[in-house]
Write a sequence for this structure.
């Protein structure tokens, strides 16, 4: 599911239809405060924030959510219908966020959204696989430690009778 936060929701009707046709669920927010509440409450695969959202600045939203650990690795796309200051653009790029200027061709945006969601899902899948492998490595290390301990004890126990036999032979 994705969150589209824009105070001009009527501009998103075409996009909504295209994404629904692709099977992508959406929620909408018409202000920065509403977007922040929804982000904190729900899990999303992508957040699209309009740069001119009323209420809270989009970077403030992202930083608050990031502080709470909710946005780690979550793709964010920023949109704007006006030219933004270079510093905002640089800040978005520094955070690894996508940026597009409105109006954008709906087909291109749908493609971009699907690509970002697919990439996010693959990243989550890789993280899950990594965690699973780390658990298996931990189990193998524990088994190896147990094996080494057993071999040490067995070697000691075998050396005791051999030492006695060796003493008798001498």
């Amino acid at each position: 599911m994705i969150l589209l936060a824009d105070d001009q929701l009527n501009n998103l009707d075409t996009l909504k239809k295209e994404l629904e046709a692709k099977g992508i669920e959406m929620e909408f927010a018409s202000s920065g405060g509403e977007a922040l509440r929804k982000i904190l409450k729900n899990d999303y695969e992508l957040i699209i924030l309009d740069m001119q959202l009323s209420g809270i600045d989009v970077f403030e939203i992202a930083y608050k959510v990031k502080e709470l650990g909710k946005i780690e690795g979550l793709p964010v796309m920023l949109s704007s219908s006006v030219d933004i200051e270079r510093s905002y653009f640089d800040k978005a790029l520094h955070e690894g966020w996508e940026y597009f200027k409105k109006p954008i061709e709906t087909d291109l945006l749908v493609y971009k959204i699907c690509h970002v969601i697919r990439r996010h899902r693959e990243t989550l899948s890789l993280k899950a696989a990594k965690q699973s492998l780390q658990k298996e490595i931990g189990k193998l290390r524990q088994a190896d430690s147990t094996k080494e301990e057993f071999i040490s004890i067995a070697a000691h126990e075998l050396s005791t009778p051999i030492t006695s036999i060796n003493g008798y032979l001498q």
Notes: The mean pLDDT is 81. The beta strands are 2-5, 26-29, 46-50, 76-80, 98-101. The CA atoms of residues 1 and 23 lie 10 Å apart. The radius of gyration is 28 Å.
